[in-house]
Amino acid sequence: MLVRLRKNLTEPELAAVHGLARQLGLRPRFLDGTSDLLQLDGRSGPDHRSRFEDLSAVEAILDPGEARERFQRAAGQPDTVIAVGEGRFGGGNVTLIAGPCAVESPERLLEIARGVRERGATVLRGGAYKPRTSPYSFQGTREKGLEMLARARLETGLAVVTEVLDPRDVGAVSEIADMIQIGSRNMANSALLQEVGRSTKPVLLKRGFAATLREFLLAAEYVLAGGNSQVVLCERGIRGFDPSTRNVLDVGAVAALKRMTHLPVIVDPSHASGRADLVRALSRAGLAAGADGVMCDVHTAPSEAHCDGHQAISLDEFARIAADARVLAALDQRSVMHCTEVVR
Amino acid sequence: MLVRLRKNLTEPELAAVHGLARQLGLRPRFLDGTSDLLQLDGRSGPDHRSRFEDLSAVEAILDPGEARERFQRAAGQPDTVIAVGEGRFGGGNVTLIAGPCAVESPERLLEIARGVRERGATVLRGGAYKPRTSPYSFQGTREKGLEMLARARLETGLAVVTEVLDPRDVGAVSEIADMIQIGSRNMANSALLQEVGRSTKPVLLKRGFAATLREFLLAAEYVLAGGNSQVVLCERGIRGFDPSTRNVLDVGAVAALKRMTHLPVIVDPSHASGRADLVRALSRAGLAAGADGVMCDVHTAPSEAHCDGHQAISLDEFARIAADARVLAALDQRSVMHCTEVVR
Amino acid sequence: MLVRLRKNLTEPELAAVHGLARQLGLRPRFLDGTSDLLQLDGRSGPDHRSRFEDLSAVEAILDPGEARERFQRAAGQPDTVIAVGEGRFGGGNVTLIAGPCAVESPERLLEIARGVRERGATVLRGGAYKPRTSPYSFQGTREKGLEMLARARLETGLAVVTEVLDPRDVGAVSEIADMIQIGSRNMANSALLQEVGRSTKPVLLKRGFAATLREFLLAAEYVLAGGNSQVVLCERGIRGFDPSTRNVLDVGAVAALKRMTHLPVIVDPSHASGRADLVRALSRAGLAAGADGVMCDVHTAPSEAHCDGHQAISLDEFARIAADARVLAALDQRSVMHCTEVVR
Amino acid sequence: MLVRLRKNLTEPELAAVHGLARQLGLRPRFLDGTSDLLQLDGRSGPDHRSRFEDLSAVEAILDPGEARERFQRAAGQPDTVIAVGEGRFGGGNVTLIAGPCAVESPERLLEIARGVRERGATVLRGGAYKPRTSPYSFQGTREKGLEMLARARLETGLAVVTEVLDPRDVGAVSEIADMIQIGSRNMANSALLQEVGRSTKPVLLKRGFAATLREFLLAAEYVLAGGNSQVVLCERGIRGFDPSTRNVLDVGAVAALKRMTHLPVIVDPSHASGRADLVRALSRAGLAAGADGVMCDVHTAPSEAHCDGHQAISLDEFARIAADARVLAALDQRSVMHCTEVVR
Fold this sequence. Notes:
Four copies of one chain form a homotetramer. Chain A is of the alpha/beta class. Chain A has two domains: about 1-65, Alpha-Beta Plaits (2-Layer Sandwich), CATH 3.30.70; about 80-335, TIM Barrel (Alpha-Beta Barrel), CATH 3.20.20. Chain A is about 35% helix and about 20% strand. Chain A has eleven helices and 15 strands. Chain A has helices at about 10-25, 50-55, 105-120, 140-155, 170-175, 190-195, 215-225, 250-260, 270-275, 280-290, 315-330, and strands spanning about 1-5, 25-30, 35-40, 60-65, 80-85, 85-90, 95-100, 125, 160-165, 180, 205, 230-235, 265, 295, 335. In chain A, α3 (about 105-120) packs across α4 and α10 packs parallel to α11. The termini of chain A are far apart. In chain A, about 60% of the residues are buried. Chains C and D meet through α1, α2, α6 and α7 of C and α1, α2, α6 and α7 of D.
């Protein structure tokens, strides 16, 4: 690892650098008589980079070298493939997740679940606990919502992904969900990340509105470091300056992330656009950029939706998106998972 | 309240609008034969705006009218003044908060606490639970840190503000702290906001990296709606596009917020700049723009700091900032609080 | 057109509103006794919206109604198809533009031109006048560069697009170029836009680093209003907050623009990513989102490049991008143009 | 200068590096057997950094060392003081610039000019050539506007600053104006920057909506490199993501720029806020952060204003801003210039 130190260091600051190197079993040597370019040799662990970055003496890590975090893809390392029900993310597998933004009624959920299953989804999404900007907005059906999701899984064979907001609910959500979602607003909620790190369920981690790629990957690292290696990353649009669009789907991030990490990367074109009429174009763009999957808001009666009804797409539109997905995946010899289990 | 509906509504969507109006005791009437401009008359509550915004039929609230959230300053409404120990925020009172980024050792904390007290602070900050981007970074001294803060208060008379990350820790932190801080990364953590809404301690709410003013104020509304009316807002810099500066201190937000809300507004020039040499200029700018206080990272031995050591300022620099504050406050006939209690 | 006026207008402000309405032949009437919602009826011209927006009395245009700018796609209006040499943009035609960032030597330019022609480009790009952030950077071969481009066209049959920076050079560039490019840094350079508005050559207008879609379209309007209806819009990445990527390719903008305007929309994945290894993914994403073309930086000897050498792709990579383009275009029954002229 | 090269360089790329070093009279040596950390010793010129950055082989300049651009403040170098009429920017001098956004009628201009002079301005602003987002908006009174400004100077003794949009107008504007303004939209218009670089008049350069500080300073460098050393920088708000505020006044940039460059730095709180009611707070914040001056939009009849009327402040408000300025300047032993010439 090559580290750049600040200029004019005090004795204690320099001592702190040497002390940490010793503690981590690394051998420090300054390059060529410089007093700020420090090469650290020795076996590196995933925590080394952060620990040096935290020292006030350190200006920047010029080259992390062997100090690779767990999320990092080493040269030649293949994709990590993550299984969620019959869905597979990564390694040539493309998975479609679809469902209503919020879980509202058992009948509506089942209707949507059946519809998306027929059309190509292998995972059902639906929020039981809703993260709302306003305290006065519908906060979700909570435990009842979880029950409705479990019922829908029984009836359709779809796996279930749902968001958890509170570390105290991780247990209950883990019981029901096949995959636990951490939303954008909680991407940097270390307490929640540590809690799901202790879980054995796969995690769907959404990028924060204005998170850099490194911040996003380090949020995933909290889960990995906690012992849970099953993290799927989701690009859902970043905050932009044009009020006419909700967010900006960052397809460059999808492409860059696939190179930086071995973890799967999917896109959420629904929350990115906030417009039902642009979801299909963004879904195609995300898959074309290399995403391992797409997650869509689908609703059969948007006027009833308790949140984001205007951005939900119809089953017909989802069918078109699924068809696009199969063609786009084939471009790279990838394939879209589909449900095979026979259900009633 | 004047609401704009989307075009080409379906029957159910329109019914949902009328149903909600009825439920809230409001009388709807379309303006002038239009089918999208809906005036709602009647007594409005703080939840009305959000509830209409959530309907898929609603495009925008053109004029909230009487539907004012709790945070909103009504015409002529004076500042809410919030007391924290001998500190007072708002209503002509300016308060200085200072201390180390993280609480590390009792001796160091006490040294810093005494130093800032002498120089003008009435509230001591120090993180016992640290929100870190990386799981490998120092996470804080936790309960021991809370004990150290309590000890420092005993010895100096300073009130204490410290951050809580996990709803499960709110009880313990409330026991010790005079003021509970919700950090930027958790501004939209509804579970945490609801928990501190149930507390009786004042809350210091930091603006998220890329939160709009309305999102920021609605986060405060979670706390107010929960029954805790004591919220101080903190502008700490928003995410920018220039990598050479850490964040952008949004003084326009300070000025705008003071008009939008009756709640006090302070600035954190330390986290905004990430540079010890710019803290003083930003502190002055924030106060000049109308902020009710300033919160600084101060450390007597930055090389020992477990986080953000390079941005901490010295006691001497804090003294200069306090002197500036007194002059700037006086420009508007405001005054800076100072500790009067005699301590050992 | 439905206009919202500010509250508490002065007599002169209100008179200015009525005066303008009269001048434009519009009949104003307030809705339903309101004093701020003004409906304007009558025949609307492309300038009406801007002229009302400029009045201090006007808060916002709630509904432009018939006041459509020239760039706007009316309901059902088909794509405008723009021809550049054998290239066609829009209306089911996809065109590939490729070439070096800067025109340096005749031999190199010809080598690259022949290479990209064989592989699917119909238009050659190359900068003779380079817009550089630093005055010390290579500013371009200027007139000699134009001659080299003309020579390359003669030899290959490719049409030529090149950037103009100075209104005084529009004449000379128009002589040589088949298409004139206005770069991001000059998107809002009204003097330059007005000058190319007087030209008869098609214009390639690049979106500014942080331009909203409306600002972008109004920049195009300068050219259209000047009499030149041939404008192709280019999304080339917007400024983001993550220093690890150069810009953020805004595919949502591509999709939204195709709905807002009848003008063709292409993407520049080279300047968007700044990384040769991501150009292909972004090119695919842009086309999948609906772009009418792609413009790439291609170089056969990047180490010689006077600017942006590290982001240039090879001929082989361009061939792969062209193959992707044919498949992606076919998804929507669109086709990629190719050179048919026999050349020596 | 310490340069970091990319990994896996080709022979030609490495040769280009050595070739440039030779050409510039620098001696290259790799540090400590590394193949990417290159130290360049020898006399450095202002162009050296940019020229190395442009090589495809170069990843980054780790330390510019002696390769300082003309704008850079060397250690201990004092402020450059720029004189405009009786105004002085920098070196302890604070100057107020005020006037209407656009020059409309001689009577109105004179009324405003007299008013701001009495209240503390030494420089009159007024746009004769207006940079408009829409081609249908009022473009300015042009040459007639210049004449009106000249007349107002004669009558009041105020110096005049006005914007130029087109390189072809630089001569005419230079004739009349005491200071030439380059607006935000043209900050990166190299043709225009080069033209004013040939002028002998001081230049007021406004920061682009989303320009980094280095891009801003390199734009100034175009002028300095052209031979015109009199550049005053103006921070006028950067593009943000909150549609409720026009721009974000970046006071941190003001503070950082004062350390990076010896050139004066002022703020434009009018265009930053877009709200007459926040101009005063932003003006105070800018001066408190260290700005060498403030430029305000002032109008005696905003309803007549052809552009931005809603953000113009009254003469009374300007008087309050001027009073604030005197107090804030005094905090740092600085003083505000005022007109002393006796006029009729």
